[in-house]
Amino acid sequence: MDNLESIIEAMPSEHQKDFTAYLQRLKSKQERKDIDLFRLLAEKQNLPDKEKSIPMYLYGKKPNLVAYHALRKRLMRQLADFILLKSREFDLSATASVSELLALARYLFDRGVEKTAWHMLRKAEKIAIRNDHFDLLNTIYHFQLEKSDSEFADPLESIIEKRNQNKPLCEEEERAVIAQALITKQLSQARQTGAVPDFESIISTILAQYQLTTVISKRPAMLYKLVNIARSVVLVRKDYYAFEPYVIQQYNATTFELRHGYIQLRMLYMIAQTLYRNRKFEESTVYLTQLYALLQDSQKSYWGQFYPKYVMLMAANYMYDTKRDAAIVLLEELLKNQGKSLSIKDQLNAQINLAFYYFQQEEYGKASRLLLTIPHSDQWCQKKMGMEWVLRKNLSELIIQYEFGNIDLVVNKIRSIETTFEALLKRSRNIRMYMQFVKELVEHPETFTDDVFHQKVEAAFVFLPVEQEDLQAMHFYAWLKAKWLKRKYYDVLLELVQSS
Fold first, then answer.
1. CA angle, corner 185, sides to 179 and 190, nearest 5?
2. What gap in Å lies between CA 487 and CA 478, rounded to an integer?
3. Rg of the chain over CA atoms, in angstroms?
């Protein structure tokens, strides 16, 4: 696969459609070979020899190879332009704003519109200062020095002074980039050897080596990057208990100003999520309440990113803290009031979570109907959400049909899961055991009253230590246990979560 094909394959289907429309707008020609080439590559036509067959498809039996290679180069340029436009469309960051203002200033200087160009430079400078973008400020001051002979320029002495004040900060930023790379490497090496990495020690040692120890607490953006690196190690090992005191300590030691709102929101969510993973649901709710209060006073652009996550995590805390009704109301209102504006991932996560909450409340019809409203195939969902998410959806559908008494549908669903998720089942002993015991429940329901069989089930599941076990991994096991205990599923689930 060459570079052109790799880029096209990486594009989501909606972006491929947008790109085709973009090409059609560029020219009014009826014959558009660039569109034909793009479609051939995007649709992955099963052509025996692409180097020969594609030119023949485009140009006939005697293809013009010179024209074909020129067409490929043009398509590559068009893809680059389109991707740049797309990135600007979704990148609302200060970096993007400053870069666009600098590009506009250069354009205006080239055309002699110096007054407006200088206005754009000052605007870019203010945004960069407000967001601690010292590397961009360095670029801005160099540009201002180049254009300091303009009658609309700031005083030269002022530019030089600002440049000199910014230079040490810019150098700190450069040292921080090096430190982050070294921290990432050392943590990765420790993880590969199977050792438990002491991320706090590794981070503090490297920060001291690069004279950054006292800088971090004053630079929230830099701190967030480092904490996020440590979190990446935690995600692999699922050791949230070790991460919890570190992230809270770093947050409390940091000075956040109004301009650091975005970073503070991300830190608060990270802490709340860590506490949730550690089953400290009330404490997690406290940090989520702080997040919501900060979100109320933040830019509107942050709302779409953080509010759905806030609602889903708050609902999860409520659900495990015996406040299931409140959790359901939160998600129902989110889907009703924000549904059309939610990202695909947020919408799908909200739907599957709410369906599970309905199931816990024994409202199986509601749960089933909600899953049926997902307007996409499992294959499409897998591309967006991953295979584990689709497996969770299928397992949910399986137990819903069992509760309906639709045994034939349950048997068919079991076969489908075993075929579709064969690779995932091979990697996970607990999922394999779960499927085996569900089949036993369907084929020999009388065995679920046998104490010996209960012991067999208990022994078959291997759970991680409490500090590493994923809460969602316990959901389906709790359903099985509720069946042999002949108790309500939600009560059994809460007991498992609180006792483990």
1. 125
2. 10
3. 28
464: pLDDT confidence band, cut at 50, 70 and 90? low
Euclidean distance between CA atoms 450 and 385, whole angstroms: 39
Q: Enter the tokens of residue 151.
A: 């009658």
Residue type at 333 in one-letter notation:
E
Say whether pLDDT at 51 is over 60. Answer: no
> What span, in angstroms and rounded, lies between the C-alpha atoms of 273 and 471?
12
Higher-confidence residue of 454 and 319: namely 319
CA neighbor of 396 nearest in space, from 422, 426, 434? 434
Whole-angstrom Cα distance, residue 215 to residue 224? 13
DSSP code for 60: -
Query: CA-to-CA distance for 99 and 94, rounded, in angstroms?
Result: 9
CA-CA distance, 212 to 173, in Å (whole number)? 9
Residue given tokens 């540009």 in the structure block: 143
In Å, what is the CA distance from 449 to each residue of 187, 399, 433, 444?
49, 19, 18, 10
Q: Which long-range contacts link 388-393 to residues 24+ away (Cβ below 8 Å)?
A: 388/424, 389/348, 389/352, 391/417, 391/421, 391/424, 391/431, 392/352, 392/472, 393/352
Query: H-helix or E-strand containing 407?
Result: helix 407-420
Give the least confident one: 12-26, 260-274, 376-390.
12-26
The confidence score (pLDDT) of residue 80 equals 85
